[in-house]
Design brief:
The chain is an alpha/beta fold and 341 residues long. The chain has 12 helices and 9 strands. It has a domain at 76-235 and 255-330: Vaccinia Virus protein VP39 (Rossmann fold, 3-Layer(aba) Sandwich). 41% of the residues lie in helices and 16% in strands. 48% of the residues are buried. This is Leucine carboxyl methyltransferase 1.
Length: 341
């Protein structure tokens, strides 16, 4: 989805703006642009060597730098998601599948394949308007054969919004429409018996609670062994959280699922009621301080000078990772203990 993949980035930037520039944000700023914002922010972080991404240039270019809090937050987000994915793949020996909800212009598939990570199937889902644009970028002459060369089979697409290429599938669907979503997934070479990892970065908060609950129930019932990594806002009922939400509303970004983001317990309960068995939740600040290596944190914080370390701390404290797991097979207990690192 266009907004879901990048929602956190808007509030990062908005709060930095309030604290530093007090710049007004246009009322007509829409959710439709947040996918571009996310890609541009990732590009800016990559160009300063926060992390490596040899594929981001295919999806954006010529982006100016971002505030260091934003780039640091992006590094933490990308590093955590990538580490969970790699642990899941390693623990299953590659006999698994990944579904990325609201994937936008994410490049994780290519980054995994670049390091010879093999999986059964990698599926990206977003609004059809986003998937159509991503397909056009993948098919651009400058991208051929670099991007498609990683696919296990030649490209096939349907109606310009869906692309199928062996182990990679890009499908356009509205996640609030379960029948449509199910129909598209059934065309994506997924095996309900294989361990499946679902990724969602600021996706559920854009859906009414009953709709995201329906989505979680659907996924937990469809796959016998399933992990779900969710990234989005948390602690939204304190003063800092209220300012974040107001900044988003001022940009025309509305959050129907905000009630679930009150605290870590409300996040965990949302998954518990969808029959996930093991549910762990951490603020991004906890992950940053406790799970990442001190040497890597030192490297990150040396790239750009942070004028206000307190601001970074507050930002990271208001985003969370939830890792929920259910194992109907009884054979994959080791997957329950995965955590970002």
């Amino acid at each position: 989805m266009e907004g879901e993949a990048a929602l956190g980035d808007g509030s990062f930037g908005a709060e930095v703006g309030v604290r530093r520039r007090s710049a007004s944000i246009s009322d007509d700023y829409s959710v439709q642009k947040t996918n571009d914002d996310a890609t541009e922010s990732k590009y800016a972080a990559v160009k300063l060597n926060y992390y490596y991404d040899n594929f981001i240039d295919y999806f954006t270019h010529g982006v100016h730098r971002r505030d260091p809090e934003i780039s640091t937050g992006y590094w933490a987000r990308v590093a955590a998601v990538t580490s969970v994915v790699r642990q899941f793949i390693d623990a299953t020996g590659g006999h698994c599948q990944i579904i990325s909800l609201g994937a936008g212009f994410d490049t994780l598939y290519w980054r995994l394949k670049e390091t010879n990570q093999q999986i059964h199937s990698y599926v990206e889902v977003d609004f059809s308007s986003v998937t159509a644009k991503k397909i056009r970028l993948i098919r651009k002459p400058h991208a051929w054969p670099t991007l498609p060369s990683f696919f296990s089979q030649p490209i096939k697409d349907d109606h310009h919004t869906d692309l199928h290429a062996g182990d990679y599938h890009l499908i356009g669907a509205d996640l609030r429409q379960i029948a449509e979503f199910d129909e598209k997934l059934n065309l994506s070479d997924l095996d309900p018996e294989l361990p499946t990892l679902v990724l969602a970065e600021c996706v559920l908060v854009y859906m009414a609670a009953e709709k995201s609950h329906e989505l979680l129930n659907y996924l937990s019932n469809k796959f016998k062994t399933i992990g779900f990594l969710n990234y989005e806002q948390v602690n939204t009922d304190d003063r800092f959280g209220e300012i974040m939400v107001k900044n988003l509303k001022d940009r025309g970004i509305h959050l129907p699922g905000l009630a679930i983001c009150t605290n870590l317990d409300s996040q965990k309960n949302h998954f518990r009621t969808a029959n996930f068995e093991t549910i762990n939740a951490w603020t991004v600040l906890h992950v940053y301080q406790k799970f990442f290596s001190p040497s890597e944190i030192e490297r990150i914080e040396s790239i750009e000078r942070l004028d206000e370390k307190e601001l970074l701390t507050q930002l990271l404290e208001h985003y969370s990772f939830v890792y929920a797991f259910k194992d109907g097979s009884g054979n994959h207990h080791e997957l329950a203990e995965i955590h970002p690192k």
